[in-house]
Write a sequence for this structure.
């Protein structure tokens, strides 16, 4: 690249950057289990899912293949970048205001209760963890430079949450609690003005699955302005 089932969803997100890179790419990435504005990264992971499911599919940044939906539903000093429902590589182009952190999953899982039967929080937490226990590969590049030790960036929601909390009250949503997410998430510090490329990807090994391995490969060409 150049200079993340409706009841059981996995999303992966990636960033790779290009112009005005720091000496080492990891200088842009907050440590695992860090906090921003008083909130742990696991809280942002839950909020990411609430954001991603708050919009119809035709407005969803996760469904979007070009980046034109990048700004939908964004607010505050932390912007979310989307993964994809596809197993194929995609590239998005996105404008981001200066001073925004960027938060996204390299790859992750979310589970919530089926609409036809209640389950408890421990069940959805266990199901969200399954594929993350068998991570096959993971990578992140920012401005053409690899970020090391990505396996240390595993985060999970602190307890359970309502995955449909941001859905409009005019829309009838199925029960969204309890929900839990578990995966590999990254918080990137505000990037300097200009163009950047963030590329990430990962693969879950799913032996015996009729769907095969789950793969994410996403590139964002970002202009900070």
């Amino acid at each position: 690249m150049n200079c993340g089932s409706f009841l059981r969803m996995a999303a992966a997100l990636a960033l790779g950057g290009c112009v005005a890179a720091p000496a080492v790419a990891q200088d842009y990435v907050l440590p695992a289990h860090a906090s921003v504005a008083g909130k742990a990264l696991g809280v942002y992971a839950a909020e990411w899912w609430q954001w991603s499911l708050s919009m119809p599919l035709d407005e969803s940044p996760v469904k979007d293949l070009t980046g034109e939906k990048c700004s939908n539903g964004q607010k505050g000093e932390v912007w979310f970048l989307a993964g994809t429902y596809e197993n194929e590589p995609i590239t998005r182009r996105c404008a981001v205001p200066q001073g925004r952190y960027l938060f996204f999953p390299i790859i992750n899982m979310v589970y919530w209760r089926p609409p036809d039967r209640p389950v408890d929080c421990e069940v959805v937490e266990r199901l969200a963890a399954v594929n993350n226990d068998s991570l096959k590969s993971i990578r992140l590049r920012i401005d053409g430079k690899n970020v090391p030790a990505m396996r240390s960036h595993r985060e999970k929601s602190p307890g359970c949450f309502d995955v449909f909390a941001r859905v409009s009250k005019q829309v009838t949503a199925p029960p969204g609690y309890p929900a839990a997410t578990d995966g590999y998430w990254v918080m990137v510090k505000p990037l300097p003005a200009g163009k950047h490329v963030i590329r990430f990807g990962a693969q879950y090994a799913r032996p015996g699955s009729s769907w095969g391995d789950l793969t994410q490969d996403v590139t964002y060409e970002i202009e900070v302005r």
Residues 8-224 form one domain. The longest strand covers residues 101-112. Confidence is low (pLDDT under 50) at residues 1-21. The two ends are 22 Å apart (CA to CA).
